[in-house]
Amino acid sequence: MRRLVSALAAALLLAAAPADVVTQVRAWRQQHEKEILRELFDFLSIPNVAADAPNIKRNADALARMFERRRFAPELIAGAGPPLVVAERRLPNTRRTITFYFHYDGQPVNAAEWIYEPPFKPVIVAPHEPQGRTITLETWRDVIDPEWRVYGRSSSDDKSPIVALLSAIEALDAANIPLTSNVRVLMEGEEEAGSPHLESTLHDHADKIRADAVLLVDGPRHASDRPTLNFGARGIMNAVVTVYGPVSDLHSGNYGNWAPNPALQLARLLASMKDDSGRVTIDGFYDDVAPLTAEEKRAIDEIPDVAPTLMKTFGFSRPESADRLELRHNLPTLNINAMDAGGGVAGQGRTIIPATANARLDLRFVKNVDPAKQLERLVAHIRKQGYFIVDKEPDAALRAAHPLIAGVTRVGGYPAGRTSLDAPIARAISKAVADAAGGSIVRLPTIGGSAPFYLFSDVLKVPTIGLSIVNFDNNQHGPNENVRIKNIWEGIESMAAILAMP
Amino acid sequence: MRRLVSALAAALLLAAAPADVVTQVRAWRQQHEKEILRELFDFLSIPNVAADAPNIKRNADALARMFERRRFAPELIAGAGPPLVVAERRLPNTRRTITFYFHYDGQPVNAAEWIYEPPFKPVIVAPHEPQGRTITLETWRDVIDPEWRVYGRSSSDDKSPIVALLSAIEALDAANIPLTSNVRVLMEGEEEAGSPHLESTLHDHADKIRADAVLLVDGPRHASDRPTLNFGARGIMNAVVTVYGPVSDLHSGNYGNWAPNPALQLARLLASMKDDSGRVTIDGFYDDVAPLTAEEKRAIDEIPDVAPTLMKTFGFSRPESADRLELRHNLPTLNINAMDAGGGVAGQGRTIIPATANARLDLRFVKNVDPAKQLERLVAHIRKQGYFIVDKEPDAALRAAHPLIAGVTRVGGYPAGRTSLDAPIARAISKAVADAAGGSIVRLPTIGGSAPFYLFSDVLKVPTIGLSIVNFDNNQHGPNENVRIKNIWEGIESMAAILAMP
Known about the structure:
The structure is a homodimer.
Chain A: H1 2-12, H2 18-31, H3 33-44, H4 53-68, E1 73-77, E2 84-89, E3 96-103, E4 123-125, E5 134-135, E6 149-151, H5 155-174, E7 181-188, H6 198-204, H7 206-209, E8 213-217, E9 228-230, E10 232-244, E11 250-251, H8 262-271, H9 294-301, H10 307-314, H11 325-328, E12 333-341, E13 352-353, E14 356-365, H12 371-384, E15 388-390, H13 396-401, E16 405-414, E17 417-418, H14 424-437, E18 442-444, E19 447-450, H15 453-459, E20 464-468, E21 482-484, H16 485-499
Parallel strand pairs in A: 3-7, 3-8, 8-20, 9-18, 10-19, 15-16
Antiparallel strand pairs in A: 1-2, 2-7, 4-5, 4-6, 6-21, 9-20, 10-14, 10-16, 10-17, 11-13, 12-14
């Protein structure tokens, strides 16, 4: 009977009621939890650092097979970098087309820092049981505790979301609930490397990607763990700053407290870039920031304040700024993500004045802030501190002419993007996700992290919305990345709701 | 006839005239250059990083054989660290006993940074010939250019001085020039690791070491390349400062410009430790410094000002301080010799807020400055900047209670020592070396580098003098350490002059 009703609904293009969708999708998932996790485990077992071309190709091939199984027509688009994987499932009589964006590459790994298993050997950890028992596919029990977590690189960022979409479609199909949208999928293999080729690929293949909305499924939920939609993402650029000291390492006794030390110079330079309230002191750094609208401010006001929880979880007692995190996400950033001099402290202990000292900064951008202009501001700031700027190792003449010499190397980068919270598709998706969750959701005008949002919102000019399903405490980008299984289950429901929304 | 005169001189304990000593030693050396270099090459071929116990033992065994050949009675004194090698050649009717100190270990190496051959494959480089031709023992010509350099770890620091002493003794013996001193030799295998066991070994074996003077043969000549004597050495201590940020690396987008960044905090902390004139701003840092005497100031005034040459060689145009280097050597230092955060810039580019940031500082001390007290001043300074000091990774309660948390770990360390320039033995040695060189020498009240000088001057209470023979531009402690062959030849003459002085 249910099958008949569903078939009729499909024929008449009647969208299923949200509560019914959730009930049926959940029932299917409960019957198929092991299969879902097995597919995720297989996928996580394929190493996916963007620079590792052979394994990246294996990931792309695996994706093609996974989508083929759900009646998509997948295609691998080769280019200068990892292949772009696109897939489409075109249905008759749908209301619209939605393109889902994911990335299948992960951040680089240091296996030594992973406490349970190496990063590409996924493992389930039962966090609330004694000794954080680990569970493999072979040893798990019949009942899967939704609080268990799957550890592995890209478990959260961004492979679980892909498996969740596939499961949502399979669940809807099984329940004969009609999809109200054509579904297109676009999967990138170098997002963690800064998406260097996405723009040209989108330009060249816009016909395969264009839609009524783009849904970027990436990043963690808000720390309240409510289903989280976002309407913008920050842009990002890395800049490596090198301060040049003596032409080679010098003995710190023979020449110490006389020869200049680039590590100290770099420390001073970095210290000059931010004040005690977390405000970047580079001239013009905040000049072009687009102010938040009334609705955007309201959305932030509605978000539970999780600062105390976050600070406890992350083990610090004073944030850089007293402003709330979700407001800070709407400002550009300057962050030191790496620093080195003299081979590092963990290495061999040489008593030297190092020849150079380096810092890698990530700059994040918000709507209206131009990356190149922001980099120029950084360079101007360094110049203002007395530095001569070089684009390669300085020669003897430059060294003789300038007491302070620094190089600034830009690595990748792209701007921010933002979609209006008031766009009809934005309202529809917000409602579908909120209804499916049976409660309030979090709407973020801009997420803190970066995704190539602007390419869709500003270049492709399609309303673009981010959906985040994974737990916020997922150690994304660091060692011991994980996803809570409950978040996969709820992610399946959020995506099914969108696929079946009126 | 010469033999007869020498034998008579020995019998009568008549010291040979300085000019005669130099002439005969030089003639012997000119006949034996290849043998001298071959012995050095064999010695440099044995890896000698202090932590490499099997090779350190091979070095000690080689030394025993080398000194045995010159009629010394060598002994290896085993202890907690690398063996101490002592050797004595006791003669009848000598005026005094001189103990020579050397160290046979070298600084850690990174073979990738060595441009000619790996650090433990010695090679001669002809710097003024096209392409800096390299010469091995098999390919060299009959005439050895004294401007050639031997590249290899410890070529300057401190193996050539050992070979020079052995050659000086062999030359005097060959010329039947009587040694006016009993010669004792003391060779340490963990100087570059901070000499952790030297004090106890000297205490336990003082009877084998005590003498009328200790001659520490280590470190480079003054940059004027004049034969260099010093009467003191700075002490040293390493201190690793760790600033604790979030409990694990955080995503710099999700939490950047809100969660505190320990790399920035460390940068601020380091920047707070020195002012623009190179003066350490830590309270009391210079309080206990023993002022220079009139004679010590005169000795410094007599030294050629080599600052412009040094700055050109080392490729910088503004020293930390306008004071001359030799004056700076009589002040305590604070130097950043290594720094790291987020795995370093050269590594994998993760966009994170690193969990910790680290700096390794070397502190050097001069006469009267107590290492433990100086470390306390550093810790007090860090505390004054608002930090809570921990001696291990902070727990959740400490993290919740303190916004700024740092650890300070002391690594090794010993104080400075200094001998009066007016001591009779100091005058005698100064005269012998100056006469042999036929001109002026450099006398440094304190060298910039560190050696366990105080153990001899202050603990053993023996007048202690440093003799430096190697070229100043030897890349000591860094990659591509080298010694100019001319410096070995002149070092042989300086040491022979001391051994034969009245």
